[in-house]
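note to self: dont lose this again. the chain is below, predicted strucutre after it. 71 aa total, dont forget to put it in the shared folder this time
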Amino acid sequence: MSKIRDETIKVRQVELKHNQELIQLRKEQRIKDSQIRSLEADKRQKELILRRRQEEVSCRCLQFIYFVIFV
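---
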C-alpha cells in the first residue's frame, strides 16, 4: 500500500510540475505577444508620421516650383 501511495504522490508531483511549467510558458508567450503587438503599433505610427512628412515635403516642393515658374 505504501508503495502505491508513494507512486501516486510522485505522479501528482510530476503532473503539478508539468502544469506549472505550462503556465509559465503560456505567461511568457503572452508577454512576448504583447511586446510584438506594441512594436507593430509603434511601427505603424512611425510609418504614418513618415508618410505625412513626405507628403508635406512633396507639397512644399510643388509650391516652390510653382513659385519659381510663375513668379
